[in-house]
Amino acid sequence: MAQPNSSDLAGRTIGERIQIIRTRTGKSRAVVAGLVGRSEDWLRDVEKGRLQNPPPLDMLLQLAQVLGVRDLTEIDALSPSLAKSRIRVGDPRRQADSA
């Protein structure tokens, strides 16, 4: 599974990062949305930046897991809480780090 390098993601929005990673992993919007319990339209809105607020941390963690992302800052490099804690997907300490 090809992972985007940091230069592919630099300066991108959360939605753009999700779309780049999703397409690089070869997953359709329908598949990813279904795996996180959301609609394809919702995921399209996330990717296109049409939501008023970005997805909450728990949803970003689910998306990261489905997309095979190991470090959540690949999706959300701008969040101050993530910049401090460098949350690793699947890390049992993530709840303590994000509290």
CATH hierarchy, class: Mainly Alpha
* CATH topology (level 3) name: 434 Repressor (Amino-terminal Domain)
Our Rg estimate from Cα atoms comes to 13 Å
Q: Provide the low-confidence segments as ranges.
A: 92-99
Q: Let me know the CATH homologous superfamily.
A: lambda repressor-like DNA-binding domains
Query: What CATH architecture do you see?
Result: Orthogonal Bundle
Distance between the termini: 31 Å
Please describe the biggest sheet, giving its number of strands, its sense, and whether it closes into a barrel: none
Helical content class = 40-55%
Structure notes:
With 99 residues, the chain is mainly alpha-helical. The protein has one domain: lambda repressor-like DNA-binding domains (434 Repressor (Amino-terminal Domain), Orthogonal Bundle). Helices cover 53% and strands 0% of the residues. The protein is built from seven helices and no strands. The chain has helices spanning 6-9, 14-24, 29-35, 40-47, 57-67, 80-85, 94-98. Helix 3 crosses helix 4. The longest helix has 11 residues, at 14-24. The chain starts with 5 loop residues before the first helix and ends with a helix. Residues 92-99 have low confidence and may be disordered.
